[in-house]
Amino acid sequence: xxxxxxxxxxxxxxxxxxxxxxxxxxxxxxxxxxxxxxxxxxxxxxxxxxxxxxxxxxxxxxxxxxxxxxxxxxxxxxxxxxxxxxxxxxxxxxxxxxxxxxxxxxxxxxxxxxxxxxxxxxxxxxxxxxxxxxxxxxxxxxxxxxxxxxxxxxxxxx
Length: 158
Hints:
The chain is mainly alpha-helical. The protein is built from seven helices and four strands, in the order H-E-H-H-E-H-E-H-H-E-H.
């Protein structure tokens, strides 16, 4: 998101940071205090608010687009991109970076199994993206190049 926003002269936003700013608590604390359903309600409200911003590249968390209401709002706001990665790669990143409540306390191999199962449930929503870019083995700049290329094929790019 940051690379594309810089290229286009737009704002970059991370939905988890937006939620934390609005709620005054970390995503992990919100998950712990509100449970997943309470967190998802806050997430949907933050998503709805942020999608109203023009000229913004928004990075959502993996669960954000996974309701009919959320994906419809995303589709109405403009093009979307599924940055598709293997569960192993995504687990390694999540474990190293921390902060993913559904993976907290798990080792990379266990996290990969959890992510593979989540992908099965989430794929129908992710698959509605305007374009799909595989991230395994690509640098962030190469991913951004592929996103721009995919959006151009779909007739969209600033």
